[in-house]
Records
---
Amino acid sequence: MSTSVAVIGGGPAGLQAAATLSHLGLDVTLVEQQNFLGGAVARHQYQVLMPDFSSGPELLKRLIQTVNEDPHVKVYTGTTVGSVLESDGTFHIQLEGAHQESIKAQAVVLATGFDHFNPARDGKYGYGLFPDVITGAELEEMFAKGPIRRPSNGEIPESVAFIYCVGSRDRQVGNTYCSRVCCAVSAKQAIELRQQLPKARISMFYMDVRTYGLWEDTLYWRSQEEAGVVYVKGRIAEVTQLHGRPVLKGEDTLVRGPFEWPFDLVVLAAGMEPSRGTHDLAQKFQVSLESHGFIQQASPMQNASLTNRPGVFVAGAASGPKAIEDSIAEGDVASLAVYEYLKAKVTL
Amino acid sequence: MSTSVAVIGGGPAGLQAAATLSHLGLDVTLVEQQNFLGGAVARHQYQVLMPDFSSGPELLKRLIQTVNEDPHVKVYTGTTVGSVLESDGTFHIQLEGAHQESIKAQAVVLATGFDHFNPARDGKYGYGLFPDVITGAELEEMFAKGPIRRPSNGEIPESVAFIYCVGSRDRQVGNTYCSRVCCAVSAKQAIELRQQLPKARISMFYMDVRTYGLWEDTLYWRSQEEAGVVYVKGRIAEVTQLHGRPVLKGEDTLVRGPFEWPFDLVVLAAGMEPSRGTHDLAQKFQVSLESHGFIQQASPMQNASLTNRPGVFVAGAASGPKAIEDSIAEGDVASLAVYEYLKAKVTL
């Protein structure tokens, strides 16, 4: 019998894990609930990736082609995990959906990714009520599909506001963590917007600008110095609407004054949450969640992919908010952990 | 002839790379210029690691023991790289110091780590002039060696200030990037300080608090809510001394007022720079540096460890500021990249 690994989730982390596991001599079944591979990059049609402005479609093409051309990787899209039984270190996984079969795996990689926070859950942003209030993911789709226009009337926006930390760092909505990438993604989007909207006023309303590491000057400073984006340290109390335009009410915490400013377009930098399936899969595979509902890393200083359960590993945003390149790296890290786990059990 | 890999640098990234390369069936020579392994963790005696308050010595013990006990890893401490010649994909490396020999390697991993910014280079902090102005690394050494006391007079400090972004995000000193971990490390240190100094006033002077991801509530919020640490958004113009105590002069950018506050102890959160040897090694191995002097990642979305030169890989803080667990993960990522590179060349 060949030694087989189940990878659950076909985003960047899962795709990388599937490819690398195969390179290490293992047979892989890659299970993806959507009818397409690529995870959030595909779902939201990310065109231009942070931090290096590389192409999202090209990244996906490479990752997807690699697994599709690999005879040792079975790709099951439109498929979900039903029941899971383990005996003697072998996982018997009943699949549902497009591939209703039972598979056996000696190890499992959970790469179930994230969902964006839905800003409709927090009434103060007016999301779902005011057509010109959109999410960052919806802005990505606008970049993909055509020119930037106000959804309400199709006009070119003359002023755009980004609101940071929507659904992140917010005890009231229950998400006390930071989503890591939204600051830098917003800076990237503002730089892209500037190319399309040379005259627009672009303002960022932030608590802290977390363009950490080498993103600092390449994204944050560049957005200010080249794209003329203005950063306002301010808390948004609510978004209302007046004369058909969204109005941001809040307090500028630097100049200590309240403001009430209309904008043509408001972009909500909505954070990351554990994907809808994560809780259910964690139960099925009996792995622990950490306090925010992400899959708990049992020993990150030893290996980022270890869970509390031997034979079950995690990669990518399933264990917390993460940038794409970090998710891809964790696909490798998980593959190595699987390899070493199985090497200790069987002769590969 | 066995297939051999040279790992340059014996910090967490290099140690992890050496161990993993061996697990993948390769022979490794680990070259470390210091007389000890462990990189910055050993050099500064980090006792309690961020983010999980795990033990630095235990981490090092595990990493070092693994390579020392591995018959496929030769460990050369006190050794540096002299000349490097490549022919037909084999690197001929002349070593200097404790092991003056020539080694052959089919691939090289550069894991040359970082140095802390030396605050004496920026006169405004009074570092080197005022005894009670210390660096975060020196505070770690205080934690390791004994109780926290004022260097000037041995008294228990009643007030402690941390200054963030020393040598980071600062065009004047030439470091335009953010060092990623100093915010969170300072929060960790403040929580530790509180245990020793239950009554001290502890203040953090910051530009942005970048406790990204899951560090937000576990370190930033916890330092405020459990340890009573006060965060002041403020820029420090200079540190002077009055009546034997350091005085912070600056502007509180939130309440818009100048301040001039004395403290018993001032901790400079000094950022990360490319290690002294990085530039020289990059020249010897003909790999490109990015704009800040770190080793350039050629294609991070494909693999974090790729450089512009085939056969030469990078791991850890040599390519930019990085947390310890990220450096360890990159040791794995680089090992896999080496493995796949060599697999394409020879039969392993």
---
Amino acid sequence: MPADQLAERLTALRADYEDLQAKGLELDLTRGKPGADQLDLSEGLLSLPTGHRDRSGADVRNYGGLEGLTEIREVFADLLGVDTAQVVAGGNSSLTMMYQVVTWLLLHGAPDSPRPWSQEEKVTFVCPVPGYDRHFTMLAELGIDMVTVPMHDDGPDVPAVRALVADDPSVKGMWLVPTYANPTGAVCSTEVAADLMAMPTAAPDFRILWDNAYVVHHLTDVETKSADALGLASASGHPNRPIMFASTSKITFAGAGVAALAASPENKAWYLKRLSYAAIGPDKVNQLRHVEFFGDADGVRAHMRKHRDLIAPKFAAVQEALSARLDGLGVATWSQPVGGYFVDLNVMDGTAARVVQLAKEAGIALTPAGSAFPYGNDPDDRNIRLAPTFPALAEVEAAMAGVAVCVELAAVEKLTAPVVE
Amino acid sequence: MPADQLAERLTALRADYEDLQAKGLELDLTRGKPGADQLDLSEGLLSLPTGHRDRSGADVRNYGGLEGLTEIREVFADLLGVDTAQVVAGGNSSLTMMYQVVTWLLLHGAPDSPRPWSQEEKVTFVCPVPGYDRHFTMLAELGIDMVTVPMHDDGPDVPAVRALVADDPSVKGMWLVPTYANPTGAVCSTEVAADLMAMPTAAPDFRILWDNAYVVHHLTDVETKSADALGLASASGHPNRPIMFASTSKITFAGAGVAALAASPENKAWYLKRLSYAAIGPDKVNQLRHVEFFGDADGVRAHMRKHRDLIAPKFAAVQEALSARLDGLGVATWSQPVGGYFVDLNVMDGTAARVVQLAKEAGIALTPAGSAFPYGNDPDDRNIRLAPTFPALAEVEAAMAGVAVCVELAAVEKLTAPVVE
């Protein structure tokens, strides 16, 4: 576009932006939180359980039962495609279980570690980007270094991962959200998963923290199955490599659900042993509450279809708003996820922070630019995570129309800015 | 008693013991677990909450609210005698909160630490004995050394504590169950608490983990108030010294209650900052459930009187059974607690392990001898913790009559054993 047309466009966009600001919006697309209508789907939980004994006859109201109720472990096993014996059902947060695992690796090391990780000179994690901000801030808090690899539509870039892990024994771990990844929506293929589980690593105690937070969070009627991480790892001689996490946080109540971990027998025994010093048992009443509510894994799947019906229109609204203004302009690309909680927006390089600022000043809160990268550092300043589930549909429409204005305005601002010599 | 009388007594006791074994008992006095009738008192929780918003209007079913609902924090503040601003309400386990604090001291250090505790050559905790086994096993798991001081009726032996902390900067912490201590039932006086909070310590970051697990667990109508640890510490210029813990585990459901921590503003901010990397928020639905169930702190107090009515007879049965057989024999002493969950039995030196073995072989499970000491090491082999709340009253009577036989038998066995030169 010639300079005079760009200048005209800038004037028009500034007018659009003023109109946007004049609306006095107060909208929030920052976090992957369920909407109130989604939470209402689980209202039945509030008058459960009706009983207080589990299948074994144990009183769920009392202490004990560190690995969780067998019946809720069965539900998780079915959903995750693992054996019940591999599952620990815990408290209300899979993030907490991940944090436990990482801190125990630091304080004690894994069963196959030469020493506690905290006694290594350096510990490094491979982080596919863009990724989940809480994964990265946790590692930064714990003094673990991070190196990034690109996340593709079928999972992390395997050659890049291989190159990082092959020779450097300080590279001891890797994050992965395998299904409907946060934020790209990518689904790790069986081929990629098999490569990751089989690849040689310099560290004998390499771990892949397989955060299957969105395992049943389909946005279409194609209900993608996650790769069989534990089976693939076992088949390739690295049974201890993956540790799997999931929860019902975005199934029932975010914050009052049940989390789970699944792993090899050795990893599971290691986890439970450490846990035995930190806890007497999980909230088994809440576990039984969930078992009574769902019945079985198919009950969960049926429930997830009700979530899909509520949130798929919001994801469609994001696509429509972005397409309506930005299609063909060449200033942005975005994901078209078939599951999960996010749309991943890539704006013109060097404008993501400006887009977030413009949106903020128009009353639309977006996740800070860069937050999907370790240390908050998006080297291209182009990535923005959109979370459309929490606001009402009309709010998503209004917010995304506004975001589209901000994306184009920031791009044209950049293109028309005087070049600094 | 002359040797021939002792031999006669041994024969009689062996007959009593055979009778005991013939009863085929299967009784368990090992853990401080509420009985089913106590859990029934909280059955109303299972159909709560009726609402899903807290006082601030936040939807308790969704993410967030790391420090817990204000209204449950108010209840804990009232019960613990602290300000609401000092309280964090957490998940289902105060043990987990203690474990978090200790691991974060190791990994990060306290606000007033020169460095993370894991970077010290040695870290030592002062452990009043007998004490709570899980306190000690936690420290052993985490590589923290333990030194013991005697527990008196008014709290830990202050001169002994002073001597340990005054000059050795590796002595960085201390456990204390201030009210109705596990297992002795001792109540830490205000004088002792004031001394502990004011005493000079070589470590600038000395912490007293004030585990007020039994703060409202009175066995009589004298409802003893705990010493004001936070106030005393603040007044003596050591506001960060104590960190207080409590939970509703033995108030509502053990395992499905709400735990809390209370501390100075600096400690609390430190705890919440660390916690923010490990969790998004506590189970606020369960917190609101508890708020609706109790109303306020007086609701908790009224509820505890119902517990008292159920368990005081069991404690009386322990006293009766021990007195009936052992009064005047000089082979055992035991506590007469006015609160808490335990009776502390001291048998003849060198016979505790034998008593536990005899009881086991008669179908009565007791906590392993020595478990109230660090590393399970009771130097006098005389201490046994009795937990009478979980079995039914008739079972407590039967079990304790049996325990009394075992205590006397072990003593007479010892007195009549050939002396090994």
---
Amino acid sequence: MLHHEIQSEDKILFFKKEYISEFVYGGIDGAITTFAVVAGAEGASLGITVVIILGLANLIADGFSMSVGNYFSTKASRDNFDRHKAREYWEVEHLGEAEKAEIREVYEAKGFRGELLNQVVEVITSDKDVWVDTMMKEELEMTKDGKTPIKTASVTFLSFLAVGSIPLLAYIFAGLDSGIANSELFLYSSILTGIALTIVGALKSIVTERNIMAGIAETLLLGGLAASLAYFVGDVLEQVFM
Amino acid sequence: MLHHEIQSEDKILFFKKEYISEFVYGGIDGAITTFAVVAGAEGASLGITVVIILGLANLIADGFSMSVGNYFSTKASRDNFDRHKAREYWEVEHLGEAEKAEIREVYEAKGFRGELLNQVVEVITSDKDVWVDTMMKEELEMTKDGKTPIKTASVTFLSFLAVGSIPLLAYIFAGLDSGIANSELFLYSSILTGIALTIVGALKSIVTERNIMAGIAETLLLGGLAASLAYFVGDVLEQVFM
């Protein structure tokens, strides 16, 4: 009954909410990173082929490193939980009295006193699983991350590639076979990236459970500022070096 | 006493362990991302100025977007906790009987029965803070993230910039005023990046509490594969487009 309630709260549109979070953050990172390459190259007037080559190289390398990094950190967080849990089992086994005293402290802090406190401590420490579970939540304040490393990494990778390729679309499809000016391609790329960030920013508000407009504004502002920085750096360095 | 124990466990070399984690992941991401630009440009034979311009533009834009994104997501996770907690306070206030029944379920699952169960439920629900705290940990399995958004973002940004600039050092200091070949600069950049990833990979094992060799191997492999992908994409696209 309790578990049912939690699960239904955490599922939205058949997706587990936690994977929407990977989709959103992977997508935002992909779009912003790739658009920064586009903006930096445009600021330095580097030409269409440089944008496409370094944009794609960056997209694939960053998407790979972000998602594999994500795999390792999700795995590390789960392993860390398991290791602490194993240590608590060991302590319960070998340092029973000290661990029992800690359960007593925990329940004393909750307002239990006298004979009732004794009885509570007895019940908790009569079942090793309950005992360790209490130590994990109350002493270490750790709860297990329910995410599967391989799933978080896959969703991040696919989202990074899909959303992150959007800033390059105009260059790939229009840039090579016609006389469209660089500045016009950059405009199209900016518009497409803006639309993508708006959609992902709106989805972000599902994850953060906040106002949808705040999610969109935050995401657009972040992308706009990162791209402006890249453009500015490209522009300044062009004058220095070229 | 309990809190003292937890804090001392989480501090290493005067740093809170959680901020070592930001340093490590910011640094790894910075070095891998920047080295991917270097490798992609080398694969496509794009020249030293392109490496420096897009490397720096990417470093600053990515460092900014990663750390600000980090700020928002740490903040969102804390806000999410606070919102759920406020909701539990509301439920305790307005749906007291249902929430009391949930506390009963939680403690029944721990092995409490009969009169003792009644008494435990009475004590827990006699203090609203204890009641809500129990709902947060036992029903929602949520514990508060102790990290401060502005600190995690700052550490991430500085680490991203500091470690992420290492792949560019050879190009910036040796590339512009001498006749060193591109391939030689790429070799120096690879060696410096390898050293940086080795150090940060070793630090990562402090965060993950795992074998130091595994931390180094994992980090070097990840950086090497990401750079190889970027090099390969650059190389293939050079043949297609140039």
